[in-house]
Amino acid sequence: MQITIIAPGTQGDVRPYVALGVGLKAAGHAVRVATHLNFETLVTRYGLSFCPMHGDTEALMRDPKVGNALAKNNPIAQISLLQKKLIVLNQQWMRDCLDACQEADVVIGGFGGVIAGQPVAEKLGIPFVQAWLVPFLPTRAFPAVTFPMMRTWLGGRLNRLSHILGWRLMAWPMQRASVNAARRAVLGLPPAPYCDGPLAWLKQHDFPVLNGFSPNVVPPPPDWDAHCHVTGYWFLDPLPDWQPPSGLVDFLEAGPPPVYIGFGSMSHGDPQSATRMVLQALQLAGQRGVLLSGWGGLTQADLPPSVYMVDSVPHNWLFPQMAAVVHHGGAGTTAAGLRAGKPTIIAPFISLDQAFWGWRVADLGVGLPPIPSRRLTAENLAQAITTAVTDPVMRQKASHLGAKIRAEDGVSRAVESLFADWK
Fold it and tell me: What is the pTM of this model?
């Protein structure tokens, strides 16, 4: 079977879909991944076919305007800015997806796939399988990821309504005009339904829905249909020939486990100030640290001997050697920290799923309540770090959850679930 996976976004977005593709290839299928050019090597090194999608998420996150919007944690500014940045890409993305889906038997994708790939599947008359890294489908069990602060006082029908409103009032309106223009210009299709957009077509079919997160972190809601599968995380482990930087290995062996601090693809309005704040927090907490420079612009200058900076290291290798992990709350980074069994501190930058994961970590007792990035200070970060590395109950819960997640095989379960529904 020829399978196309649509995976635009940041590295944290792309890696789980590459892992899923590796599992599908191991099961005997031909897999191509459509994503940005800066991830071509990632895709091809794991033996998958690559199809280019326009856009550069790294450049987007480095944009000073994006950095300022993220640093202020202003959802209105974030949505407005992203709408302006992404609206010009939808038509090109749909063309890219049309090229990538030629001769495909199945198309798979998450949010970016639903926006750009579902219309292509509709045009070609082939199945589109939703593959989510966050709980997206409506449920009475918990509110939408866009409303995590309401988790303690919404319930039942209101929870389900929050999912519907999150799509109809926030996610879809941001894309509706540009998607419908692309449907007409690229595919010759009529506009998608006003309220539900591409979801209306998906609701007409019982295609499998894959949810790439652990049932021990988000238990399957009882009101989800039988074709909605919570499979476990889709982890992409390092290739056998990968070797860690020797300087990092020496640093780890020279003292007690450090604290990881990194904000992935999230840009900070003032990288130098962020670096100083992080270093001061580690000093106040009396902890060694490993900092990820990433795309956030953390600088190498004037680091003390107790801190080591890396550009990019696989989380699945690094996190088990940490005392705790501090990050922005991306789905992939959160999954890696939980798998490693380490207490987690999340500082959400963008008002989507990051705060949801922050509160989920806290509710499970394996981390602290999230600290929005705009409220992050050396003092409150130091206090959170101290709690994370010294609280025996939190550390035990994190360790137990990590063991459960490591016992799962989300990729294999996803592959089995995908084809079990069609047997």
Answer: 0.91
